[in-house]
């Protein structure tokens, strides 16, 4: 069934025009252009997606350059491996030269050579992601579906294209679960069997690539079913044996979403995910994922704050005491513990820190203290700390209160120095 009408209804006018401009140039060059991958899948499912991926049987970079020269779009980037990005208004379109991939060994990045559309579809992960729609003028809207993606969409199945798929690229293990849970599909029987068999192949994948796939999962609208599923399959445990996605994790993820979004939310999910590991296990996992310094710190702090929770379970603590117990830790780590905390006193203290205590500042600074006759040095530092503590505990409220307190802290010596200094 031709999909031209469906494309016309699904894609915004401006984008259709840009695609037709690209197609026009391709026709003139004797090349064929296809819409491929996730957008074809989502168009058939009726889900919104504006990730325009085009495959060119020809030279994608030259084609993109010619489109840019006619002024229809701007060439944003182009790369050695025959890929280019065009931008028009706020729309972007990725073009790639059709390619053939061969894997020298499991987990290695593939060797890439130019190929046909069919080669390009065959190198992909799942049948539902391995479909294309022709944009060429002589068969505009014709679907290309050599692996039965359409039928798998209808049957709600995630299916790999060949039995070596997970061995070639074990990130597909994580991707399979991501699509399965996002779309409410099931792993086709043989795919499920091979996925389980090939879980050890995750060891062939670099930390950066595994981390990227985990980030994609945690970037989903509701990542908790995928995390639970990964734990059920034993995939998480391959990354860290103690990572089991405990029973409360799903509720904690739901709570996390009410508090923040975007990259911060992903970082918060990571903190919740690792909260049951011990320091050694976490250290190993971070090494495995080649995690950058920032997120590593948030996760380490999550365990450190967790170790302090017993001290925070005390309703008699003064705000300043809460502050000193928490001030050196990443707020994200405190947030993660607040979500996970079972005791209401602990939660209240963590929230007090996050919403109020960490922002408390004194009115007076060092310069103001000098005007009051203090000289710079350790004693002034001590006075500032005392003022800050009094602020935290609500013992001083106004600037005048702070001045009174500061003057009451002045030692006779200090005063004498000042008189002396002025003479
Ligand atoms: N792809 C693949 N194997 C991978 C990564 C990507 O086969 N390890 C292919 C799939 O055909 C996929 C396409 O490249 O559809 C684009 O990849 P990506 O942007 O990650 O996937 P989308 O399908 O666009 O997924 P999403 O909806 O999550 O953006």
Descriptive account of the structure:
The chain is an alpha+beta fold and 423 residues long. The chain folds into three domains: 1-155, Beta Polymerase, domain 2 (2-Layer Sandwich); 243-356, no CATH class; 366-419, no CATH class. Helix content is 55%, strand content 11%. The chain is built from 23 helices and eleven strands. It has helices at residues 4-10, 13-29, 38-45, 60-69, 117-122, 149-155, 165-168, 171-183, 189-197, 207-218, 224-233, 235-239, 249-259, 262-273, 279-288, 293-312, 319-326, 331-340, 344-355, 366-371, 378-392, 399-408, 412-422, and strands spanning 32-36, 52-57, 74-79, 83-88, 91-97, 99-102, 111-114, 132-134, 143-144, 157-158, 186-187. A seven-stranded mixed sheet has the order 3-4-5-2-1-8-9. A two-stranded antiparallel ribbon has the order 6-7. Strands 10-11 form a two-stranded parallel sheet. A hairpin with a 2-residue loop joins strand 4 (83-88) and strand 5. The longest helix has 20 residues, at 293-312. 36% of the residues are buried. The model is unreliable at 415-423 (pLDDT under 50).
Q: What is the name of the CATH class of the largest domain?
A: Alpha Beta
- Low-confidence spans: 415-423
CATH-level-2 architecture of the largest domain: 2-Layer Sandwich
Q: Beta-strand level of the residues, as a percent range? A: 5-15%
Shape: elongated
């Amino acid at each position: 069934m031709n999909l031209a009408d469906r494309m016309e209804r699904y894609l915004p006018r401006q984008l259709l025009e840009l695609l037709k401009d690209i197609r026009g140039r391709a026709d003139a060059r004797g090349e064929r252009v296809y819409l491929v991958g996730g957008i074809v899948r989502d168009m058939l499912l009726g889900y919104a997606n504006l990730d325009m991926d085009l495959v060119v049987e020809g030279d994608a970079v030259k084609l993109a350059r010619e489109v840019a020269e006619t002024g229809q779009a701007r060439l944003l980037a182009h790369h050695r491996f025959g890929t280019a990005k065009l931008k028009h208004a706020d729309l972007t379109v990725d073009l790639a030269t059709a390619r053939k991939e061969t894997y020298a060994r499991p987990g290695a990045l593939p060797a890439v050579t130019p190929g046909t559309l069919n080669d390009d579809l065959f190198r992909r992960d799942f049948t539902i992601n391995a479909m294309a729609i022709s944009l060429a003028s002589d068969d505009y809207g014709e679907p290309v579906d050599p692996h039965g993606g359409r039928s798998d969409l209808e049957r709600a199945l995630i299916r790999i294209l060949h039995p070596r798929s997970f061995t070639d690229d074990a990130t597909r293990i994580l991707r399979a679960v991501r699509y399965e849970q996002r779309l409410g599909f099931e792993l086709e029987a043989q795919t499920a069997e091979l996925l389980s068999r090939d879980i050890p192949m995750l060891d062939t994948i670099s930390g950066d690539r595994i981390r990227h796939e985990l980030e994609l999962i945690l970037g989903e609208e509701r990542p908790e079913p995928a995390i639970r599923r990964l734990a059920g399959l034993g995939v998480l445990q391959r990354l860290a044996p103690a990572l089991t996605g405990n029973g409360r994790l799903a509720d904690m993820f739901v709570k996390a979403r009410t508090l923040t979004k975007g990259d911060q939310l992903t970082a918060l999910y990571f903190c919740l995910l690792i909260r049951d590991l011990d320091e050694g296990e976490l250290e190993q996992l971070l090494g495995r994922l080649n995690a950058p310094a920032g997120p590593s710190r948030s996760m380490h702090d999550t365990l450190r704050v967790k170790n302090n929770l017993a001290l925070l379970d005390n309703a008699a603590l003064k705000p300043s005491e809460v502050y000193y117990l928490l001030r050196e830790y990443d707020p994200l780590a405190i947030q993660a513990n607040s979500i996970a905390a079972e005791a209401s006193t602990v939660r209240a203290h963590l929230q007090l820190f996050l919403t109020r205590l960490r922002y408390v500042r004194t009115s007076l600074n060092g310069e103001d203290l000098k005007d009051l006759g203090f000289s710079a040095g350790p004693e002034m530092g001590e006075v500032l700390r005392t003022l800050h503590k009094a602020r935290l505990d609500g013992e001083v409220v106004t600037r005048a209160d702070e001045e009174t307190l500061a003057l009451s802290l002045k030692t006779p010596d200090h005063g004498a120095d000042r008189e002396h200094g002025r003479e």
